Amino acid sequence: MAAGHVQDFACFTDFDKELVCHWKVPTHVDCSKEFLIYYRKESHPLLNSVCVPENGKDRLCTCTIHPKYFVSSLTYILTLQFNGTDTWNYRVTPALVVKPRAPKNLAIEKAENGNFNLSWEESYSSSSMLSGQLVIYEVKYWRKQHPTEVSVKAINYQAKSFEIVASSLQRGYDYAASVRCKYLGYPAYWSEWSEEVEFFSDYQITAEDALRMAVPVACVLIMAVSIMCYFCFTKYVAYASQVLW
């Protein structure tokens, strides 16, 4: 094995068009000159194909394989070659390393009640293996001026929309939102986060909101006044008792 040259070898697939394998290498390595991946279906031991890797970001060599089809039983045998020498073999079943494509066509609209309706579409056509499969989503949104303060909401049902309640946002700020997904039958990876959409929070406090906030405040004030009256009364009783004696 090419110790020192290959680290963190892993494969994942969109289970529709491509199987991607990558591994980390030193910064000086030219992936296309020093590595090759030979691959074959486990059921066809004599039919080898070759993938020439490319240098990617984060010091990764990346090899992209384009199978003609995907089925749950499909398994590949990969042989990694370094400078003409076979270094090691890797067995991968694409159905076990599915990283779905991110949702697409993310959009946001302001509703009549002042809330924001976020919607999106699945990134797979009706002919894909993943089309119609059970899928869950995560929505995240944040103030653009404070990108580390992120709200994340899980959607554990078959919906392609989410309502962001305006009263949960801070008025006068620009916000951004994004969505990712995972298929329950192929749970290895979440997708990447989708492209962002932006919106502006100009939420106005309504009379109903003011009433909802006023009720607990009034209750707290009543309790505080009651406690103060109680202490004043006990002090008065104690003082009166001392005077009478």
UniProtKB/TrEMBL annotation:
UniProt-listed SUPFAM superfamilies: Fibronectin type III
Gene Ontology CC terms: external side of plasma membrane
Primary location recorded for the protein, binned into one broad class: membrane
Localization per record: Membrane
Keyword Transmembrane helix set for record: yes
Family matches, as InterPro entries: FN3_dom (IPR003961), FN3_sf (IPR036116), Hempt_rcpt_S_F1_CS (IPR003531), Ig-like_fold (IPR013783), IL-4_rcpt-alpha_N (IPR015319)
Stretches that traverse the bilayer: 213-233
Family in the record: Belongs to the type I cytokine receptor family. Type 4 subfamily.
Record's protein name: Interleukin-4 receptor subunit alpha
Lineage: Eukaryota, Metazoa, Chordata, Craniata, Vertebrata
